[in-house]
Amino acid sequence: MSHGGFTPIARRSVSDEVFAELRDAILTGRFAPGDALPPERDLAMSFAVNRHAVREALKSLQAGGFVRVVHGGGTRVLDVRSTAGLDLLAHLARSSVKPDPGIVRDGLEMRRCIGIEAARLAALRADAAAHARIEASCAAYGDPTHPDADRAFWLEVVVASGNVAFRLALNSLVQAIDAWPDDMDPVLAGDRADLVPHAPLAAAIIAGDAARAGALADEILTQAIDVWAALTAPGGRNKEA
């Protein structure tokens, strides 16, 4: 049955399934950088799919920086840390791979860097409408009817910074956070509970005080890094995360 001129399609295609399997095999180290993936024909037989599905999956892997497809020369696995973009975080979140403690730490450090600069730029660029949104989102901390107050606040700050790259990076971080709730909920509990108050940060942004906004964002966002360090230290609850 057609809806609005479009025909419903399967939620996940065969090539998507093949892509996910191969992606996870690369992320878990089953195929290391420099390794050659099996030929298309062998992969098609292993997955019991046609070669077109395999070819489409390989194209997606190449677009994501996982492999390099050489016409007539096979497919080589790349070092994703050198070739992938920020969307690698989203791929890690969608995969069956448990988060590596170092990757989580790196993501939290990137979150802090983006937050500091976004707060500073918001103080310089935000208009009155953005000020109102930031102030309103800040007031939602502690309100049980707004469980996502922390996310909403930082979204407004990033939007007010006027930096699209920061917004895209935030998207990747949010996907990773949502995919690993058991690991991330304890780490972000202080942020969500307004343990280090966000109200002074909102006030600094509204006042146009970029230096103070950056310093306050640093203080707020460092607490999650400190919690993760404690959890992954010898004897910490998540040391085998």
Automatic annotation (TrEMBL):
One of its GO terms (molecular function) is DNA binding. This is Transcriptional regulator. It comes from Intrasporangium oryzae NRRL B-24470. It comes from the Bacteria. Keywords: DNA-binding, Transcription, Transcription regulation. SMART domains: FCD, HTH_GNTR. Residues 12-80 form the HTH gntR-type domain. Gene3D superfamilies: GntR ligand-binding domain-like, Winged helix-like DNA-binding domain superfamily/Winged helix DNA-binding domain. Pfam families: FCD (PF07729), GntR (PF00392).
